[in-house]
Amino acid sequence: MVDFAYVQDKVYFGYGKAAEKIGQEVNIYRSATGIDPLDSDNLVGQTFLSQNVDWNYNKANKYGNAVWQLVIDGREIQKFDYLVNDTFTFFVIAMEPLLPILGVECNRTVSILRASKTQEPGANPYGGYELEDVSTLATSLPVSALAGGRMETNSFKLPLDTRSPSYVVLIPALTGIDLRIGDFVDDERGVRLALTSVELTDFGYRCIATSEQA
Fold first, then answer.
1. Whole-number pLDDT of residue 122
2. Kind plus residue range of the DSSP H or E element containing 3
3. In the chain, which stretches have pLDDT less than 50?
4. Contact of 101 with 72, CB cutoff 8 Å
5. Which letter does DSSP use for residue 4 in this model?
């Protein structure tokens, strides 16, 4: 009978030895929530990481791809850990038995907000979202936000109007991040995105978001 736990341990050990030879040193951050996950209190250790998009290291990455294979000692990390150094930031999305570890490369740092909605009984003068009253689901959260999805047409349809760009946003499923359509994602540049599609998967959240700026 095969001892799969023993085999998996040896595989991860081998990854770790390879990463020591060809990888870069990274800090490991493990956060229970989406609030400041890279805070120094969430630092749990250091290790070595080598990333690739092809196991034979003979293929370069392309536009629109945020998912990499991670050569790293899997015994030292957990799903949704952040791996950070001065060059890159990843979060781990998959550690399936005997398969390569997968991670998402982050290019944005965001806050995630949820606006309140008027829910008073009877007639109300306004029934939409109130942006001055928001709850915070995440702050200083590294994510991937790459152009993709469907471009949205401005509702006024004026001759010189441009379409609002859409993005595919990949977000770790940390405690407290219970995303819904209509939540807002504000990045470090001051760009605001509104979530128009939210899909929770084994890899975390895969969302479509539309820019709120022309």
1. 53
2. none
3. 126, 156, 158, 160, 214
4. yes
5. H
For the record, the structure tokens of 119 come out as 């829910």
Q: Which of 135, 137, 115 is nearest to 126 (CA)?
A: 115
What is the SS3 assignment for 81?
Answer: coil
Q: Dihedrals φ, ψ of 125, to 5°? A: -70, -25
The enclosing H or E element of 11 equals helix 4-22
Asked whether 68 and 89 are in contact (CB, 8 A), the reply is no
The amino acid occupying position 177 is I
Q: How far is CA 117 from CA 42, 192, 196, 199, in A?
A: 33, 19, 17, 22
Report the distance separating Cα 52 and Cα 20, nearest Å. 15
Number of residues in the chain: 214
pLDDT score, position 160: 45
The first and second tokens of residue 107, run together, are 């290019």
pTM strictly above 0.85? yes
Longest C-alpha distance within the chain, in Å? 70
Q: 213 with 162: CB under 8 angstroms?
A: no
∠ CA 111-114-167, rounded to 5°: 60
In the chain, the amino acid numbered 61 is N
pLDDT in tens, 132-178: 678 999 999 999 999 986 655 555 454 545 557 899 999 999 999 99
Matching residue, tokens 């539309």: 210
Judge contact between 32 and 177, C-beta under 8 A: no
In contact, 32 and 41? CB cutoff 8 Å: no
